[in-house]
Design brief:
Blueprint lengths: L8 E9 L3 E6 L5 E6 L10 E8 L27 H10 L5 H14 L13 H7 L4 H14 L4 E8 L10 E8 L2 E5 L11 E7 L2 H4 L24
Antiparallel strand pairs: 1-4, 2-3, 5-6, 5-8, 6-7
Helix pairs in contact: 1-4, 3-4
Pfam families: Transglut_core
InterPro entries: Papain-like_cys_pep_sf, Transglutaminase-like
Protein name: Transglutaminase-like domain-containing protein
Length: 234
């Protein structure tokens, strides 16, 4: 939930309000994690994050960092390919060029159009591709799976996207592929191939590396989580 400043964005005045004892740390992908321990009984917990992010619209590449690209060749359960996906990737990537990856992204959106609430976070790339529909998470997982099976490092990015001065009711996700010594952004859902009004929050191998909220509790009954995300122009 905590974006960091980089070539694409400058973060100012970011604050997170959460009950309990708090501790900040960084994970293996250099993402900022905030952990909180709540020891007293409670009926509800409110977590609020807010701040200002200034976007550098001149940046045409993805997020460049010191992480070894080979890390993002590792297979995960969410980013595996079946035979149909391999054939799809081979057709659109006869050469592993940037222009062919853009063609692959266009073909993916046509094959599996964006349909709100058509999948859940438990859907794998194989399940989403087979369903021929999905949301930004599914598009990212499928493209990452296809890139990796072709030997190209690819990673999952979570964040936010501002469009047309309207609030967004959900977080956004996109992919990045490593070509010619640089990370290149591929937002399959919006057919964007360079950062626009994207806010980078975290990177990982798949959704589960960058899930915005997760927790462990002892005892108690059932629970539900409700979230609102607003991205507004300053």
């Amino acid at each position: 939930m905590t974006p960091q400043s980089n070539l694409h964005q400058q973060v100012t005045g970011w604050q997170i309000s959460i009950p309990g004892e708090k501790q900040y740390k960084k994970d293996a992908f250099n993402n900022i994690w905030l952990t909180s321990s709540q020891t007293e009984p409670y009926q509800q917990m409110l977590i609020m994050a807010q701040g200002i992010v200034e976007i550098n619209t001149d940046n045409q590449l993805g997020l460049q960092d010191a992480l070894a690209p080979a890390v993002f060749l590792q297979p995960t359960t969410a980013t595996l390919c079946n035979d149909e996906m391999i054939a799809f990737a081979e057709y659109y990537l006869p050469q592993k060029s940037w222009s062919n990856f853009q063609k692959l992204a266009e073909a993916l959106l046509q094959y599996m159009p964006y349909i709100t609430a058509s999948t859940t976070v438990t859907h794998t790339a194989i399940a989403s591709f087979s369903a021929q529909q999905g949301v930004c998470q599914d598009h990212s997982h499928v493209l990452i799976a296809m890139a990796k099976v072709m030997g190209i490092p690819a990673r999952y990015v979570s964040g936010y996207l501002y469009v047309n001065n309207q609030s967004h009711l959900a977080s956004h996700a996109w992919a990045e592929v490593y070509l010619e010594g640089r990370w290149h952004m591929i937002d399959v859902s919006n057919q964007l191939f360079s950062p626009q009004s994207h806010v980078y929050v975290a990177v990982g191998r798949d959704y589960w590396d960058v899930a915005p909220v997760r927790g462990i509790r002892e005892k108690g009954g059932s629970e539900t989580m409700y979230s609102i995300v607003q991205v507004l122009a300053c």
